[in-house]
Specification:
This protein has four helices and seven strands. With 131 residues, the protein is α+β, with helices and mostly antiparallel strands. It has a single domain, classed as Pleckstrin-homology domain (PH domain)/Phosphotyrosine-binding domain (PTB) (PH-domain like).
Length: 131
């Protein structure tokens, strides 16, 4: 019997990151940051469900990474855009790290993810926004 998978969030990075980087492009030095933000806005997608986190990205959205909550050892968040969005770094039990950039409502997403991870990972993660 298959367990139902409820979708908590499905979508791309926060639009504010794109707008902020477009404004920075006028300095010319920040054009590479703007290009990165445009690529993320076009092809990066997050899908956070009751069973896993799926990240689709890369050039033309061809790369996909699936993480089940049991693999996560630690979650760290960094607020961006005056707290409107934030970055999340998921450290897995094998030591690898997966970065989720410009996550909308990252505090709520952090709370949802930490509800799903092991008690030891919750202790290692600490509070949202703590580095």
């Amino acid at each position: 019997m298959a367990v139902k998978e409820d979708v908590y969030y499905e979508g791309g990075p926060h639009i504010g990151e794109l707008l902020f980087n477009i404004m920075l492009a006028f300095t010319l030095i920040c054009i590479p940051l703007t290009v990165g933000a445009i690529v993320r806005a076009l092809w990066l997608r997050y899908r956070i469900t009751s069973r896993r986190i799926s990240i689709t990205g890369g050039w033309m959205g061809r790369d996909r990474t699936d993480i089940i909550y049991g693999e996560i050892a630690k979650v760290v968040t960094v607020p961006r855009g005056l707290g409107a969005w934030g970055d999340m770094v998921l450290t897995l039990k094998d030591g690898s790290r997966i970065e989720m950039r410009a996550v909308p409502n990252f505090r709520d997403v952090y709370d949802y993810v930490t509800d799903k991870i092991s008690p030891a990972a919750k202790v290692a993660s600490g509070a949202a926004g703590a580095v």
